[in-house]
Amino acid sequence: VFSQDCPSKQDLQNSIQQAHKLLSAQEASYLQSLRTLRKKLNLLHDSVARRPAKAQNSTCPDLDTPVNGKKLGKILFPGHEVHFLCDEGFELVGSETRQCKDSLGWSGQQPVCRDIDECLSSPCANGGTCTDEVNGFSCVCAKGWAGPTCQSPTPTFFVTIANTSSVSSGAAAASSFPLTRASSASRCSQVQGTTHCSCEPGFTISGHDSSVCTDIDECKLFHDGPAGRLCLHACVNTAGGYRCSCPAGYSVTPDGRNCKDIDECSSSRQNNCTREQLCINTYGGFQCVRVECPQIRNATYAKTSPVRCERNPCPVDSRTCSQAPNSVSFHYMSVVSKLSAPRVMFRMSAVRMIGDTLRFALLGGRGRRHFTVQRSDRQTGELLLTSPVQGPATLDAELEMTELERRELLGRYITKITIFVSPYEF
């Protein structure tokens, strides 16, 4: 005798069939996950197989820093790059960037910094002779010309004064005597009853008194002459000449006309940045910046360099963590005001691709309207400045690179770019 609470045979069969369906669905999902994992392992295996066998800790040999230049980058493992820059007044000959190859050799050629011959542009006008110097030049001017580039005529003015005194026996009676001095000494000479007066360079005979030499204001006279402005920034008239001045944060170059930015970050005595901050030299000043890793829910980051944060391994079941950026890098640059555009400001690329697709996007930031993103090749995206920017200003942009495999996210990489725009066009 069966109790009325026991399920019928049909109910039991239905329950067993539902359990079979659930098991089949779980089995299909598990097999799909295994197939996806197998494909990724095969991709990784092929990538490793193409690399030549070498010791795990092998590195490329260290590269020399060029004389009168700088070397950026200290990591010597395969896939990493080292960049080279030359000091002002020198030009780079060789490879600007060299990459450590899998064969533990460097790409490109070792660069050198060669002194720029400023005399090639023939800066000395009106027959002047140019002498090349380190980060500058000097001019030896022809007679009748003066100035840093021989652009200013040397004014020598004469005035004739009738002499009423007699000339003895018709012989040439000559005498020399100074006339009244103003800002500069004037000299006169008398030849056969005629007096000639001249002024020192930088002075001219006064229009009211022919015996007085008055100063020439070169800053007004040659403000926009054929040879250009006398000074890059400001011209200060002096007795018998002029001098150029530069704004704070600049020094006058050896040619006396141009302005050179002072690198306050080269010496701790010239900036007040703390140990936790980076000193970024700008045109006419400097900025102290503090790089902090992002704070994202369920994801943590470790600072692997002063300007780079990398995500720690994610828990297996954390979708929020797996979708967070794999790395966040920070890049700072300084530019002059009204920089010509369009211009490529930054390039972002993948050293090795695991997936089948790379996407580049501009996420946002201050001054986003001045930028756009374009692709230069399959593995490289470029941040393009589309319009000139009037300084002073600070622009921010976030450039994202996303790697996909059959539309499935494999990794996200973000670079935060900060651009400091100078108040000046130099």
Give a verbal description of the structure.
12% of the residues lie in helices and 37% in strands. With 426 residues, it is mainly β. It has three domains: 62 residues, Complement Module, domain 1, CATH 2.10.70.10; 134 residues, no CATH class; 130 residues, Cadherins (Immunoglobulin-like). The strands form eleven sheets. It has a six-stranded mixed sheet with strand order 22-23-24-30-29-26, with no helix packed on it. The longest helix has 41 residues. The radius of gyration is 37 Å and the shape is elongated. About 7% of the residues have low confidence. It comes from Cyprinus carpio carpio.
Structure in a nutshell:
With 426 residues, this protein is mostly beta strands. The protein is built from three helices and 30 strands. The chain folds into three domains: 55-116, Complement Module, domain 1 (Ribbon), CATH 2.10.70.10; 121-164 and 172-261, no CATH class; 292-421, Sandwich (Immunoglobulin-like), CATH 2.60.40.60.
